[in-house]
Amino acid sequence: MENSDLINQIVKKEFNLPAELLSQDAITNAYYNYDKISSIAKWIEERIHFKPRIGIICGSGLSDIAYLIADKQEIQYADIPEFPRSTVHGHKGVFAYGNLNNLPVICMQGRFHPYEGYSTALCTLPLKVLKLLGVKLVIITNAAGGLNPSLSVGDLMLIKDHFSLPLLSMQNPLVGHNDERFGPRFVPVSNIYDKKLRALMHKCGKELNLDLKEGVYGTISGPSYETVTDSLFYLKNGADCVGMSTSHEATVACYCGLKVVALSIITDKVAIEYDAEDGSDHNEIVKIAKLKAKDAEKLVSYFITQLGMDSRWLE
Ligand SMILES: O=P(O)(O)O[C@H]1O[C@H](CO)[C@@H](O)[C@H]1O
Ligand SMILES: Nc1nc2[nH]cnc2c(=O)[nH]1
């Protein structure tokens, strides 16, 4: 059977309508239903023989976080049946897993972005897989452009909230049929970046003598960067930095009952004056993220040690 026939058949069964009449997220969620995601998780489980408790998503240029894992093993996304591929420079497309400071961790060296052509539901499929693998908490990282003039290149910023026009305007990964086995239809997100975990992260930052900033992550869909007017709009509405990921991932993690903590590394300053030079360049962004990643790695490692000291964090 042709793949499009199969998709049509699945969608027809669920909605009694042809797939053309539905949004991409609704189609994705019908295709990647609970059973299919369970079979992806089972496929992984059978190969890794390992029960992760912490998930880490590595942002652009931040995949070396995985080298913190002592006995690191890998599984390629390309080997996992019906799993998407990473297509962006700085995203390897690998699950790395093993113990990090004695806690079982699975690390995504590579995420999926809506601008690659994936629906937001497909971009966040890994979060549902992580949930079924046993993950309780995710640490999301990203490279972001600094909007707030108080942020400098190389700063680490703990995300306290996000502002996402794509999420607010129907690019929401939860659109479509809901399966309560993952989470509820309507999801409260006012404490999406868990307040207690943020306090713990700040404590870690202090103890490591790091100047950890805190702020709001603004999401654009990309792949074009922001115009000056876009940037001013985000800045005036409370965003401190901007990027093309994270918010939809945090939303699905929260929906699935995973605790979320998220960090941005500021890789460039966003133009907020009309006659400013446009400095956004992805190769440069990846280069800066790699150069400045050491502090993020130290912080994540120490944070995981602290999580290990109280079993309630990973309940
Ligand atoms: O968010 P991550 O994946 O770190 O990457 C950021 O860097 C890329 C733009 O240069 C975009 O993908 C943006 O989201
Ligand atoms: N200006 C800008 N810089 C970035 N660095 C990482 N992501 C982004 C982005 O979306 N915009």
UniProtKB/TrEMBL annotation:
Record EC number? 2.4.2.1
One GO biological process term: nucleoside metabolic process
- Tell me which GO cellular component terms the UniProt record holds: cytoplasm
Keyword Glycosyltransferase listed? The answer is: yes
Reaction(s) this enzyme catalyzes, per UniProt = inosine + phosphate = alpha-D-ribose 1-phosphate + hypoxanthine; guanosine + phosphate = alpha-D-ribose 1-phosphate + guanine; 2'-deoxyinosine + phosphate = 2-deoxy-alpha-D-ribose 1-phosphate + hypoxanthine; 2'-deoxyguanosine + phosphate = 2-deoxy-alpha-D-ribose 1-phosphate + guanine
- UniProt entry tagged with the keyword Nucleotide-binding: no
Q: Where is the Nucleoside phosphorylase domain?
A: 53-304
The pathway that the record names for this protein is: Purine metabolism; purine nucleoside salvage
Q: Which GO terms describe its molecular function?
A: guanosine phosphorylase activity; purine-nucleoside phosphorylase activity
Q: What domain of life does the native source organism fall in?
A: Eukaryota
Entry-linked InterPro entries:
Nucleoside_phosphorylase_d, Nucleoside_phosphorylase_sf, Pur_Nuc_Pase_Ino/Guo-sp, Purine_phosphorylase
> What does the UniProt keyword field contain?
Glycosyltransferase, Transferase
Protein family: Belongs to the PNP/MTAP phosphorylase family.
Function, in words: The purine nucleoside phosphorylases catalyze the phosphorolytic breakdown of the N-glycosidic bond in the beta-(deoxy)ribonucleoside molecules, with the formation of the corresponding free purine bases and pentose-1-phosphate.
Record PANTHER family: METHYLTHIOADENOSINE/PURINE NUCLEOSIDE PHOSPHORYLASE, PURINE NUCLEOSIDE PHOSPHORYLASE-RELATED
* NCBIfam families named among the record's database cross-references: PNPH, PNPH-PUNA-XAPA, PRK08202.1
Name of this chain's protein: Purine nucleoside phosphorylase
Q: What species does this protein belong to?
A: Brachionus plicatilis
Q: What is this organism's lineage? A: Eukaryota, Metazoa, Spiralia, Gnathifera, Rotifera
